[in-house]
Fold this sequence. Notes:
Layout: H1 3-28, H2 32-40, E1 56-59, H3 65-81, H4 83-94, H5 100-136, E2 145-148, H6 149-166, H7 169-178, H8 184-189, H9 191-205, H10 210-240, H11 270-276
Parallel strand pairs: 1-2
Helix pairs in contact: 1-3, 1-4, 2-3, 5-6, 7-10, 9-10
Amino acid sequence: MPLTEHLRELRNRLAISVAAVLVITIGAMFFARDIMEFLIDPVPVCGEEGRETRCATVNQQGITSPFATYFRVSLLVGMVAAAPVWLYQAWAFVAPGLHKHEKKYSRAVVGVGVPLFVGGVAFAYWLLPRAIPVLLGFSADEVTNFVSVEEILDLTVRMALAFGLSFELPLLLVLLNMGGLVSGKRMLSWWRWMVVGIAVFAAAITPTDMMSMVALQVPVTGLYFIACGIAVLNDRRRGRSDPDRDLDDDEASDLDLTPSVIEPAPPVSTSSLDDAT
């Protein structure tokens, strides 16, 4: 396919993806108020029955702020709900250039990566109602906390992306191992640095309370060790079919120097010579 055809196909698939996002965004605008209430629910709002003593007053500032938040929530829903469409369009554009084994691995990536990402997002939403009261607990006794809907939306999206992407770490490590770039034994040797790195990442991406940091660090660290275990098992499976598995990296394998009989070449017929000329 010439370059112009590739560009035309890319344009068409981008148009389909954008159209799907816009259609779902328009439909989500009819339910945006319910979605905003769902996002605000983790915040202990003052005046609600059964809420904690330390609470917050949710507000929106400015004339255009309600509509802007309304549209942002609808667009976010459109991006998430239309993910099967634009993911398929991306796959359909890339798949013709892949080999058969590459297609198999890419299907496995999608099949495992999507549940991991969704699990991370669900875990983040489970954590928010427990982390926000802790953050509000640092306020002075006579202080009234005003929290904007935009701030709640930004925090929710940031936490969802942070947890969703963090849960993709084991998939990345397993792919590096299956590609032969790193062994399971080497991955296990990184465990001290990985634990420290995960802790630093959790402290930087989560709210400033220890509970959220630990809540992100513990499952991601566990997933890291699970990925190391899968890599070690994959190395053992690969080693059983490798005759040179017991050799060091700088050691050459044995060469078979036994002479063998070479059969004489078949004679060339005159007809073949005539055809060649």
